Amino acid sequence: MDATAIIVAVLGSGLLSTIINRLFDWWDKKNGTQNGVRLILKDRLRFLCARYIEQGWIYEDELEDLVMMHNCYQKSLKGNGYLDSLMARVQSLEIRGIGVK
């Protein structure tokens, strides 16, 4: 091997290593953020479900928002099925008209 090939090989492997490390850093930050958002949304959904269950009824627009949040938690953030039973209880509550006008 000549000196040029050796230099190119060293620089290339360093560049490849840097790119791979940056990709891993980006992936870790993305996953950390996604996990944090999932936990915050899970906590919020639990709180709201408990509130509506204790209240015994829910406004139509609140239920719509809650269902949209739950779908986001389940599908986009890949949440587990823990909240499904709470959501079923909320959806069985008395539904009143529009709460916020």
Structure description:
With 101 residues, the protein is mainly alpha-helical. Helices cover 77% and strands 6% of the residues. The model has no long low-confidence stretch (mean pLDDT 80).
Task: Write the SSE topology.
Layout: H1 3-55, E1 57-59, H2 60-76, H3 84-91, E2 94-96
Parallel strand pairs: 1-2
Give a concise summary.
The chain is mainly α and 101 residues long. The protein has three helices and two strands, in the order H-E-H-H-E. Helix 1 runs antiparallel to helix 2, helix 1 packs parallel to helix 3 and helix 2 packs antiparallel against helix 3.
Q: How many separate helices?
A: 3
Cα-atom Rg, whole angstroms?
A: 24 Å
The gross shape turns out to be: rod-shaped
Low-confidence stretches: none
Number of strands: 2
Spatial sequence of strands, sheet with the most strands: 1-2
Head-to-tail CA distance between termini: 77 Å
